[in-house]
Design goal:
The chain is an all-alpha fold. The protein has helices spanning about 10-45, 45-75, 75-110, 120-145, 150-180, 185-205.
Amino acid sequence: MDNSAPMPVDRPVLLRRAIALEWFTVAWMIVEAAVGVWAGVAVNSLSIMAFGIDSVIELASAAVLLWRLIAELHQHAAFAEVTEQTARRLAGVLLLALAAYIVAGAAWRLWNRSGQNFSLAGLVIVVIAVPLMYVLAHRKMTLADALESRALHADAVQSIACGYLSFAVAVGLLAQLAVGAWWVDVATSVAILYFVIQEGREALAGEDHDGEPSGTP
């Protein structure tokens, strides 16, 4: 009788699952970025525009992590890790620049008392993004734990932040539809600042949610 413990799933299998998730993330972020930027410009919405720009930054980060996972699968992880850390810091700078853009834009609109028009396309994309980011984050967390990957864990945290940001924009758009007040877009933009700044700080620090330094793939 064989009493040996069951063999764990091979690391290459886990890496392939993570790669598939990142391919899906890249594809979805392309949709988010395109619809977000287009809808933001179309209805003069600072919050939707910020959502679209955040998606562009997340797209770049996801693409780098995808490349990094593929490199590890082919046993070239060391060089990929250096590139991934550099890309995360760049993403952090861009996210903090986005935060500055939101602050400046909100101040300008308060000064001019100008707001947005309602966007159905914007509402649809953020409503879809909320549950989708939850599912993606959960699956990435599971794989990150199995792979002991801080990089994938950080990406999962970014997906969580994107979900919260999407929820805030959705609430703002529904409030705009119900109230029609010019200041709703400004209020929504200020509300999503926290998530953008948090993403930027974590990316610059190169840390996971527990504050452990990034170093494990």
